[in-house]
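For concreteness, we quote verbatim a single protein encoded this way:
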Amino acid sequence: MTDDRPYRQVGEPQKGGIVCVADHASNFVPEDVPLGIPEHLLDNHIAIDIGTEGIADRLARRHGIAAHIATISRLVCDLHRTEDAPGLVPTESDGHVIPGNIGADIEHRLTRFHRPYHTAMAEWLAAADPELIVALHSFTPELQSKAEDRPWEVALLYNQDDRAARHAIRLFGDHGLTVGDNQPYSGKLLNATMDRHAEAHGRPYLTIEIRQDLIATKAEQARWAALVTDVANQTALALKGS
């Protein structure tokens, strides 16, 4: 990251087209935000949605889907939370204590990271007036802190507005994938960014969760970027016809 902005924008949105948002794409931690955790944990799912940065970049550079991409770790400030959410500045994640966040100045993190990220996104979306937003996330195949079966390869999350998700669930299924419906997390409980920037404005969206072991390499990210583009385009067409 070349400056203190908590986001970067790649590509020019096509007005009335499809755009991408990636809240958890980075594991960057500013030097003046000591988390007090082993460095190797920054490559763990607790710090970053593994694979999403590569996919979002490729969507913008190769497939014409401009992207608004986070440039700080979720451990610094979770941009996919409301301002008053308990996990906004996490003190624990999947069994790992984040000692540097205990007693952190949350208002400072909001002012420095969360608010600029969402203000910029709001302005970007208002100018783009997109027909569809792709909110890109990834999930770990297994948690360290809880035994849980996670058989899905990809999943769609949503809160009240499932009109786009319904099409995408079917379309990913047509590719022979095991598709989760509001799994492994429910968008009815955790959908902050799309609640704010999509549902509140009547904008259709796809919150796509991809299993991290399927998108660890550049080749896999390229494959999934093409697949996400295909599903998003077909979903946009289906919405037009409905």
